[in-house]
Each structure stands twice: as structure tokens, then as C-alpha cells.
Amino acid sequence: MKRRLSPAALLVFATLAIPAPVYFSIRPDRSELAKSLNPPRQSPSINTATAAALNPANGFSRSPNTPQTQDNRLSEALAALRAKGTNPVDTRKILLDLRAYLGSLPPSEASGVIIHFLAQGSLDADTGLGFGIGPNGFLKDHPSLRVALTDWLGQIDIKAAGILAEQILTSPTSADEWSVCLRNYARSKPTSDRFDFLRTKTEQLIRNPAWRYSPTVGYFEAFDVLVYSKSTQSTSLLAELVSDRTPAGRAVAHAAFLTLDRLVLEEPAEMFRQFATLPELTRARGPMVANMMARADLRDAGQRDLARNYLLDPNRSQQELEGFADAYPNANRSLSQNLLTGNKSPNPSDLITHDRAALNVVDGWSKEPAFRKILPHLETMRNRLATFVGQVEK
Q1: CA dihedral 63, 66, 72, 74 (to 10 degrees)
Q2: What's residue 86's pLDDT?
Q3: At residue 21, what are phi and psi to the nearest 5 degrees?
Q4: Looking at the domain assignment, is residue 140 inside a domain?
Q5: DSSP string across 304-357
Q6: How far is the CA of 293 from the CAs of 15, 303, 316, 324, 340, in angstroms?
Q7: Distance of alpha carbon 338 from alpha carbon 229, whole angstroms
């Protein structure tokens, strides 16, 4: 069975209401979210917390054998970046040369050099480049020298990067720097006992008014941390953001929607339960919630009951019922490079099994008196499921 993406469907994530379901969809590069706002990039303030990274008790003081010229190389790069301005060719060469130099050092020495520089929070240079994520969550472009060094530290010495990240995250520097620090912290010890810290710090980043109302690409990328940490507790915050219809809040609302939808894929039953406790979200974004509820796997008893209650709620509007019926079964997937999470493709055989089971459930509902008022919507769902099942059985 193949459910292919039409050209028009390439834009399904351009609005907060997803049209008819497809199995694969392409999410636009999130740099477009920030580009429309054209925000000024913030200069990181002095972060005294990073000085603690040089404490010998943490194991990050510079080796006595580390020559002072290593610090000079960073100072030279800083001066060159400031002198070259935002010329992308010159800037990339400066950064590439600096990265190659750090890579030529033993990891412990390179780590010490980077930390020594980052501890001087006032030293930075705007590169004029974007915040571009490449393979494996590392950056291919860096908006500032500090962000570049923080990113590279995560590649050179992840243990040091994690400890330093925890220290940097004690006070605001920039959304871009915090975003990379959240990634480094998560990767330094990828265990679920760190999820609460990641969620708390990501929420602080998102709520920061200076960053929220002049969002950078790094700000938007940080939303991925909530998906990585399965932060269903952040649903109320995301609901608040996604309900913001002001021009200033539009891009952030879209990022919040994408995050809610991805959390539904990770923790569907819990997210559906939370939607039931947030009637204000349904009032503000009814069709959007309907499309996410249409991800319910009716083979699962818990999800089946939640979908049933959703459809039979007497307060459910015709627009919401139509949105659910037109989208079910919603198996959209978004493709993007992320800080921490990867892309998951639906398993074709599982989709086939799902459609057959869901068709049986919908047929059963159609015979129940409780569903009499919404039979046309059930018929819409049944017709699509029958089509999908028929495509396989031919």
C-alpha cells in the first residue's frame, strides 16, 4: 500500500490546520519561521557561572603543559571574525580553520582551551551565519563564535560539555547558546532521570520574553528538546503558545503546534488525556486538536476510549467532527534535522494491520445508538479505511 504525497501536500505544515491525511509529509526548514520575523541576534551577556568550569574540582582546568598560544588562536579568530564582518566566505574559512586546529589537539587540551574562552562571557563575535543543524544534531552553521565553540565542545568532550552546559543554563546568555547547551547536557548522560531538568530549562528558554518575542532559529530548535524528553507536562505551556493568534506570536505558535503533534506521536494516550483537560485549547484551535486526535490507534483500548469520548462529547462542534473524520487515520510524519530526535517512518505492515482493526472498530461504532448523530462522520472514516484496506487486498 502506498500513500504518496501530492505536490500540494508538501505545504501541509504551513498552517495550523492539517488537511486530509497522508503518510509522509515534509516539514519546512524551521529557519523560515525566524526569517519572516528578521529578529536582531542577541549578544550573550557575561555568564559568571561558566567560570566554575575552570575549577580543578571539576577536572576542567587547563593542563600546565598547554601553551598560551592555544588561547591566542581563539583570540585571533575572534579578532578576524570581528574584522571580516558578515562575509560568509571569509567567516566560514575562519571557523573551519579554527575547528581543524582544535581537532588537532588532544581532546583534553582542546576542551580546556574552549572552556577557558567561554568562561570569559563578554568575548564573542557575530558570524552573520545561520543556526543550521546538520546530521546527528550538530551544527553546520553557527551564528556566533560562542555557539560554535559550545557546539564543538559537544563533539570533542561530551562529559565536559554536559557539565559546562549545566553551569551555563543557570543564567540567560542567548537562546542559541542555551539550545546547544540543552543538547550537550542531554547527550552527556542520555538517561530519563535528566528529563525533568531538560524540560524545566527548555520551558525557561521558551518563556523568556526577550527570546520569545525576538526568536532566533536556535529558539525554535530548542522545542525539539521537549519531544526528546517526552515532556507531556509541557502541554499547557504549548497550548498557551499555540493559541496566540497575534502577528508576533504566529511563528512561535507554529513551533508549539509541531511540538504538540510530535508529542502525540511519542505519548498518544497521555496527550489525549491532557487535551481533555484543556477545553480552552479546543475552543481556540479545535480543528488542530481534531487532527491530532485523529492519530488515535483504535487497537489500543485506552486510546480507543479517549477517541470515543472525544467524538461523543456533546460540546464537540461540527467543524471538529469534520476535521477528525477527514483526517482519520492521520499518519502524517514530518522530516527534519533536529538537535536530539530522529525521524521515524511508519511501518507499512503495521499500517495495514492498523487500518483493518480500525475499520472493524468504526463498523462496530456505526451500529451503536450513541453514535447515531455522527453517522455521516463515521461513514467518512469508514470509506477511507475501506479504501486503504482495499488497496492492499487487490
Answers
A1: -60
A2: 61
A3: -70, 145
A4: yes
A5: HHHHHHHHH-TT--HHHHHHHHHH-S---------SS----PPPHHHHHHHHHH
A6: 17, 9, 13, 7, 25
A7: 13
Question: Half-sphere exposure (CA, 13 Å, Cβ side) for 150?
Answer: 35
Rounded to whole angstroms, the Cα distance separating 134 from 87 reads 21
Question: Does 113 reside within a domain?
Answer: yes
Q: Is residue 68 part of a domain?
A: yes
What residue numbers bound the domain in which 54 lies? 43-173
Is 49 a member of any domain?
yes
Count of H-run helices and E-run strands, the chain: 20, 2
d(CA 362, CA 382): 6
Q: How many domains does the chain have?
A: 1
DSSP structure class, residue 126: B
Q: Considering the chain, what percentage of its residues have pLDDT values greater than 90? A: 71
Say what the pTM is.
0.83
Tell me, what's the pLDDT at 335?
A: 84
What would the 3-class secondary structure string for 65-81 be? Answer: CCCCHHHHHHHHHHHHH
Report residue 172 as a C-alpha cell: 540567560
